[in-house]
Design goal:
Layout lengths: L20 E2 L6 E2 L20 H11 L12 H17 L7 H18 L1
Antiparallel strand pairs: 1-2
Helix pairs in contact: 2-3
Pfam families: Cys_rich_CPCC
Protein name: Cysteine-rich CPCC domain-containing protein
Length: 116
């Protein structure tokens, strides 16, 4: 499986880079403009968020936004953490189990989409 890493959260959630795809984990819309100057807001699809700020926000709230929306149930955040753990396992082992890991990731992503 070949996916691209999101410029905000750093996980392999994108099929292609710079095609306005929205990350399932952090909600960053990858227009490709922000990476040259991550500290500035580009006024694009991510509004008044710079890539640098969105990265800091994700580290705290598991979303690009400044505050975790109150309407997000804690079970949804738990599902995000489980998915993050699955992404991290991709880098740890050899390629022998990669297909099994991707199948688990696809299942977790589907659950996250259905839950959200």
């Amino acid at each position: 499986m070949n996916r691209e890493k999101c410029p905000c959260c750093g996980y392999p959630t994108l099929n292609r880079r710079s095609y306005d795809e929205i990350c399932i984990l952090c909600d960053w819309q990858d227009s490709g403009y922000s990476e040259q100057t991550p500290e500035t807001m580009d006024g694009g699809p991510n509004g008044d968020y710079s890539l640098e700020e969105a990265r800091r926000n994700f580290a705290v709230h598991f979303t690009m936004y400044r505050e975790k929306p109150r309407s997000i149930p804690s079970a949804f955040l738990v599902k995000k953490r489980i998915l993050i753990d699955a992404y991290q396992l991709l880098d740890e082992d050899n390629e022998e189990n990669e297909l099994i890991k991707w199948n688990e990731i696809f299942m977790l992503e589907k659950e996250l989409l259905l839950y959200g």
